[in-house]
Amino acid sequence: MRQNPSFVLADPEEIARVIRENPWATIVSNTSDGLVASHYPVLIDDSREELSLVTHVGRPDEQLHELGQHEVLFIIQGPHGYISPGWYDPKPAVPTWNFITVHLGGVPEILSDEENLDVLASLVDHFEDRMPEPRRMHGTPENSEYAARISSGTVGLRLTPTRIVAKSKMSQNRPPETVDRIITELEGDGPYSSEGLAAEMRRVRDRMRR
Questions:
Q1: pTM given for the model
Q2: Which of 66, 130, 171, 205 has its CA 20 to 30 A from that of 153?
Q3: Distance, CA of 80 to CA of 78 (rounded, Å)
Q4: What pairing do the DSSP bridges indicate for beta strands 53-58 and 34-41?
Q5: Considering only CA atoms, which of 100, 62, 64, 67 is closest in space to residue 81?
Q6: pLDDT per position in the chain (210 positions), as tens?
Q7: How far apart are CA 172 and CA 168, in angstroms?
Q8: pLDDT confidence of residue 105
């Protein structure tokens, strides 16, 4: 990902926030058979001091990616959207796309069967916590038995990245009044409205004004 000094996201806490709020990763590997990409939910491993992500893949994907043999790239994509030049001032301009994304590269650690089961349970708990009646992986003996049986078809992994490239392109190169106008448009009911992107722009705007 090409960087631009105006859009670099270097704050570790902000990078972790983006991952926590957008826990869906594209996993890319350059294998002996060429490029392979898969998509899985991820969690930050809070048991580690350094930033680490845990997830699982299906056993066919483990073989496709040749996991553990080389680097992989995890891509986390946050809110993004089209920015119309009509939201700028009357001067000639072209449209752009605002976005926030994190790239994490490294050689993943393959987890033991027990660790994999723990990761699966953590993933279920993380997403079920919002439900009115959460279904836990170990909520009943029957659920535990079922989870233990089907977990054999998955492989857990932990990525402690050796390379992190993060970018937050939120119109930082535009005048403050233009940024405010873009946020207003994104919060409206137009065809390119996006409350999530507006929230990211507000966060960047407010941080720059401090």
A1: 0.94
A2: 130
A3: 6
A4: unpaired
A5: 100
A6: 988 889 999 999 999 999 999 999 999 999 999 999 999 999 999 999 999 999 999 998 989 999 999 999 999 999 999 999 999 988 888 999 999 999 999 999 999 999 999 999 999 999 999 999 999 999 999 999 999 898 999 999 999 999 999 999 999 999 999 999 999 999 999 999 999 999 999 999 998 887
A7: 9
A8: 98
- CA torsion, points 23, 145, 61, 73, in degrees to nearest 10? 30
d(CA 81, CA 66): 34
Residue 5's Cβ-count burial label (10 Å; 0-12, 13-18, 19+) is: exposed
Which of the 8 DSSP states describes residue 5? G
φ, ψ of residue 67 in degrees (nearest 5): -60, 140
Report the amino acid identity of residue 169.
K
Pair 168, 200: CB distance under 8 Å: yes
**Owner of token pair 């990616």:** 65
Closest by alpha carbon to 99, among 7, 202, 16?
7
Instruction: Give 50-88 as a 3 state SS string.
Output: CCCEEEEEEHHHHHHHCCCCCCEEEEEEEEEEEECHHHC
Find out whether 77 and 26 touch, Cβ atoms under 8 Å: yes
- In which residue are the tokens 């992500």 written? 53
Instruction: Work out the angle at residue 181's Cα, subtended by the Cα atoms of residues 186 and 204, and round it to the nearest 5 degrees.
Output: 75
Coil, strand or helix: which one is 209? helix
